[in-house]
Amino acid sequence: MVFVDLETTGATGTVDRITEIGIVEVNEEGEVREWSSLVNPQTPIPGFIQGLTGITDEMVAGAPTFAELAEEVLSRLHGRLFVAHNARFDYGFLKNEFKRLGLDFKASVLCTVKLSRQLYPQHSKHNLDALVERHGLHMPARHRALADAAVLWQFWQVLQRQIAPDQLQQAVSQLTGRSSWPVHLDPALLEALPEHHGVYLFYGDNDLPLYIGKANNLRQRVLSHFSADHRASKEMNLSQQVRRVEWIETEGEMGALLKEAQLIKQWQPIHNRRLRRSSELCTWRLVPMRKGDEEGLQPELAWARDLDWGQQDAVYGLFGSQRDAVKTLREIAESAQLCLVTLGLDKVPAGRPCFGYQVHACSGVCVGQESLAAHSARLQTVLSDWQVKTWPFDGPVMAREGDSWHVLDAWCYLGSAHNQADVQALLRQGRPAFDKDTYKILVSWLPKLGSVISVNDGEVYSVPLPASS
Ligand SMILES: [Zn+2]
Q: Which of 21, 69, 197, 358 has CA atoms 20 to 30 A from the CA of 276?
């Protein structure tokens, strides 16, 4: 185990820097090694933090930089259980410092705040000062890294005296995610799972994914599949079949959603419910009709695969099957007293009123009591709530999320790019089939982005577009 504490220039791991590292290493034999160093943060330390820690700009001016210490720190942390108070803070800071050097640091993490909360639920305070007071720990210099790390080691020794070994082991396993990790899965995967946006794929014995999911925090989401409180029979069944986990990190949630929808369509994993092929997707469009001398509009079923979603006339509803489409249109028609025969949904001998007219559920266009024009206008009005949005841009666009660009065209997700060459490669691959999930993701996410850029001419469109366009 390594008990770790850091002092920093502030609270944000991506911006602020480390000013001191304290590490207490304890090996299997119980041998203890202490190590600490001031770190030159290469940036001024804010005055109030100098006051809090007693670490001043002068003290760190001659200290080694993190880059100079990285190898030493890594060798001390490598392969150990990383124990810290509010561990996410210290772990996150170190990860960021290593990342600046191009190093990928990963460890199994145990947070002593969470551990204290779990083992002493009767207490409400679990900050370091509360622990020191409650357990009579020795604290020579609060807010210095090695002193704080040493207090955590003392706390651990208290736990070994006060808590039954089984109970302590169980709490640690649970907090580090080890307890729920399936035995047939490589434990190294658990360490490697990032706490980041992305898509994960569960595989069984072959190369077809069993399940594909999206996560804002890959590590938490994957672990939740295996944890005790999710052991409904279905999850249990899945977690027993998983032999391998892969993941793709994304810049944000939108990218994860798009990638998930894309991969599910591509692989159709047996544990994903959304199995329906895009090719079965259908919608209603309105086509001209004649009835005697009158002209009007009639719904016609259209298959998504046959439509050009880039420049589609108005269409209404997205349905997984013809049956769903007909059922929904019947319901809409009945609630609006439209004529099912005139809509082509029912048949009666020519010149006869429809069944709906006989029970006062049709306004009577079939027997000349309503004009076909009026009936058509009402049809258009009730369908307007169901209208699928037309792709509002003149061709493909790029939508920015973090450092990546999502390339989108006609409600389709072509992929994500990091540079112009990527974008061109995606365009060459062409558009995938229209897909309802991707459509829904884009309709809800594009307005959140504020603007997109046209691939064709680099013009910036703001989203949502003004009503006139
Ligand atoms: Zn009728």
A: 197
